[in-house]
Each structure stands twice: as C-alpha cells, then as structure tokens.
Design a protein that fits this description.
By secondary structure, this protein is mainly alpha-helical. The protein is about 50% helix and about 0% strand. It contains 19 helices and no strands. Helix 7 runs antiparallel to helix 8, helix 10 runs antiparallel to helix 16 and helix 14 packs parallel to helix 17. About 50% of the residues are buried.
Length: about 475
C-alpha cells in the first residue's frame, strides 16, 4: 500500500461548506519571484569578467553579461523571459540566430482582486518502439479529436526567470559561478534508488538515467534534478528519514538551478547544438518535480494551493522557451521512441467528450471574450489530455496528466489568478484526470484533493457544473 502523502488537509474557501517525465518532455518539445536576489550587505563583489558586446541589447548591458546579439531577442533574454531591445545604431551580429519568440513590452498584468463567486452558470445543464494504436473501444468523436494543443506565444507576458523564480535563496544567484559538481556516496544511493525503485514509466527511466550520466560532467544540472526527484520519492518510503531526504531534494534542485542558469548564460548554444539534450531533460524533470511539490506540499488552504499552482506555471512557460527550437535534435536522442509514441497518441483521431458540457458552460458565460477564449482553450487542453490518457497503456498514461500544466496560456492563468469560476471548473475537470492517475506516486490523492478544494470554494451556487467531477470521486475508487 502506498504511504500517505504529507499535507493532505485543506480549509474551505468562502463559497460553501467543508465538503511523468516523458509527457512533460513531449509536451514541451511539441509546443514549445519577480524580484532579483537581494544584494548582500557585505562588501561589493567584483563583477564577473565578460567580453564587451558593442551591439548587445540594453538588458544584457544593464546586467553586465555578454549578449549573443540574436534577433529579435537574444538568448539571455529568452531564457530569463525579459524584454529584449537593441540600441538604434546596433548592427545585428552575423552569428546571432533568430529565436522563435518575440518579447512583449509590458509585464504580466497585476492580479485581480479576489472575489467569492456569486454568478450562476448561464445555460448550464447536467451534464517500446511500437507506436501505440488507438483502442477499438474508443469511438470517433468530433469533439474529442483535438490534436496536439498549440500555444500562440507571439507576444508572451514577461515572466520570472529561473533565478528570479527561486530568488528566496541567496545561493540561487547566477552572478556567482557555482562550485564544481561533487557527487558523494549519498548521491550514488539516490541514483541507485532512481534506477531500481522509482516507478514512473516502464520504458523511459533507462534513457533518462543514461543521458544524465553521460552529461554529468559537462551539464551536471540534469543529474542533480534527477537525484532531487529520487530524494523526494525516497522520503515517501522512509518516514523516519523523510525530513532529511526532503532537505536533500531541495539542496539538489537549488544546485541544479544554479548550474543551469550559469550554463545557459555562459554557453547560450545554437539550435543545432546537442547540449540541448541535457537541458531538455533538466527542464522536463524540473517541471515534473515542481508539479509533485505543488500537489503535495501546498494544501493548507485554497489560496495557498492556487497561488503556488499559478507561480509554478511561470517556470513551466520559461522552460518551454529554453528548448523551443531544439525538437529535431531531441528527437534524434535516446528519447526518440517515447516521444514518437506520445506524439502518435496525442494526434489520434479518436477521443472522448468528458469536457463537452464544460465547454458549453464556458461559451454561455458572461465573461469577457478574451477570457472565454482562454478558458475554452484550457478546456480543450484538458480534453486532449483525457484522450491521450485513454490511448496510452496503463504504465504510461500518467504522462497525459503531467503535460497539462505546461500547455496553459498566460491568459488562462490570469483568469485563474482572478478566481473566475469557469477557470476553476477547468481545474476541477483536470482533477478528474489526476484522480484517474492516482496510483502514481507523483499524483497520489491530489485529484480528490483538488476537486474537493474547488467544490468547497465555489459552494452550492456552482454545484451543478461540479456534479460530474464529484460523481467521479464517488464512483471511481480503489
């Protein structure tokens, strides 16, 4: 029997009474806190040596780092999700490559005032190497066939960089070169645990471990993040050492982030550079780990969970940007079989209609057109995830659930930040998918927790739209 997960309690919101690695990888590949770390009060540190870049962007000049002069946005600004602009007299570098992302001039919009939902839902009513073939039990559905969700990020809001996201720890600053990686006997134990006792997918762990080992000297952040995930898994199975393993996981994740930030600034790389493979692996493992932490350790209240979930989407979007143009190289790596299988499942002509009623509720709401479009897009992404979950075999279908947070748009996240009921309903339907993946240690009972949390917050006024997620909790047990 799986050990209990920590922090399972939650308190109701104002509305009512108490009532795996590969999908992350494939999702990023296919689609591709806001303050800087406080300066020390001690003596001013010497600036890191760097070559002058006469034609570099303003942001790199301000940060005193070397700019690769790529247009329309340099790699440093793409990685850190900053607004990139060049002096008018700057001449584009012959070596600069054009990124797929253009930068927005404005920062992310401020969070709206929290409110308790009081509107009635208008018009709501009850409601291996072989490519996996679609099962015959799934009939074709015009609604269910969505294909792979695509995100229009022509002008994404400015989002925190990795170092800004983890700015709470002074050690996460990228202005200091991290120490050379040291792997101790403790880390060997974690690696052995990851290889022999950390179930996530039957076919994907060997290539993950092989890539992490192969690049452990040049790109140690991939290995560090793998070991951080293993430490958290070990904490579930060793209650007497749970705190120590959790502390180790945090230390390894922090070290991985430092190395990743340092590496991407010192060596931005080119689209055809194979260094994108360990960076891709790190990004997917970090996204997976962050999802686990959000679902497990932030359950004290509705606002504690939602705030953390929203915060984590910022990092997911930054991760997507890092490896956006490297899919062809990643596809030529040992990850190829799984990526092809997942892509085939995501493009199936077969699908369900779990979210059909939810989409009708969203379309008939009195939200602003832009918010309706954002919530509808998120609803269709949940349906896509349900379809992929039904297509993939039981050992691999968790990947559909871990893909969803990576595909969310900034507009939907903003609606979630403002506690729009329709946006919360989408999250409740996602809770159903999590509940169907509850046998995975990454997910556990988080689906049940999420559905009940949102039901408590929305209250009886939204009981009818919440009927199906709550019914699933009652009928799908075991």
């Amino acid at each position: 029997m799986r050990p209990d997960r920590p922090g399972s309690g939650h308190s109701p919101g104002p509305g009512g009474s108490t009532a795996s690695t590969a999908s992350t990888a494939s999702s990023i590949a296919n689609t591709v806190a806001t303050t800087t770390p406080p300066k020390s009060s001690s003596a001013t540190k010497l600036r890191r040596a760097h070559r002058k870049s006469r034609n570099g962007c303003w942001e790199c000049k301000r940060r005193h780092i070397k700019c690769d002069e790529a247009r329309p946005a340099c790699s440093n600004c793409v990685v850190s999700e900053r607004t990139c602009s060049f002096p008018h007299n700057a001449v584009p570098s012959a070596n600069g490559f054009v990124t797929a992302s253009s930068q927005a001039a404005a920062s992310a919009p401020p969070a709206g005032a929290l409110r308790s939902p009081a509107r009635s839902p208008a018009g709501s009513s009850p409601g291996s190497n072989t490519i996996y073939p679609p099962p015959h039990s799934l009939p074709p559905s015009a609604y269910g066939h969505r294909g792979f969700p695509m995100i229009d990020e022509a002008a994404p809001p400015t989002l925190p960089s990795f170092n800004e996201f983890f700015a709470g720890s002074p050690s996460a600053s990228v202005t200091d070169a991290p120490k050379p990686p040291v792997f101790s006997a403790k880390h060997l134990i974690l690696l052995h645990h990851a290889e022999t006792a950390m179930p996530y997918t039957t076919s994907f762990m060997p290539p993950i471990i092989n890539i992490a080992i192969e690049w452990s000297q040049q790109c140690p952040y991939a290995m560090d993040q793998l070991l951080a995930l293993a430490a958290d898994h070990l904490s579930l199975h060793s209650p007497e050492s749970s705190l120590a393993h959790r502390r180790t996981a945090t230390e390894l994740q922090t070290r991985a982030l430092m190395w990743f930030n340092h590496d991407t600034q010192e060596n931005p790389g080119q689209p055809n550079d194979r260094i994108c493979i360990p960076r891709f692996l790190f990004a997917t493992l970090l996204s997976l780990h962050l999802l686990y932490e959000t679902l497990t350790y932030h359950r004290s209240s509705y606002h504690a969970f939602i705030d953390k979930f929203i915060e984590s989407t910022h990092l997911h979007r930054g991760v997507r940007t890092v490896i956006r143009s490297s899919y062809d190289i990643i596809l030529d790596s040992p990850l190829r079989p799984f990526l092809l299988n997942f892509r085939a499942a995501s493009e199936t002509e077969y699908g369900g209609s779990e979210c059909a009623e939810l989409e009708r509720i969203i379309e008939s709401s009195d939200l602003a057109p832009a918010t309706v479009a954002a919530c509808k897009s998120a609803c269709q992404t949940v349906q896509w995830a349900f379809n992929v979950h039904a297509i993939l075999p039981p050992d691999d279908n968790i990947h559909a659930a871990t893909a969803f947070p990576i595909l969310l748009t900034a507009e939907y996240v903003e609606a979630l930040r403002k506690n729009r009921p329709e946006a919360l309903l989408v999250l409740a339907y996602y809770g159903v998918l999590l509940h169907r993946c509850r046998r995975s240690w990454i997910i556990g009972d988080s689906g049940s927790f999420l559905i009940q949390l949102i039901a408590d917050y929305l209250g009886s006024f939204w009981q009818e739209p919440m009927r199906w997620p709550l019914q699933v909790l009652r009928t799908e047990q075991g």
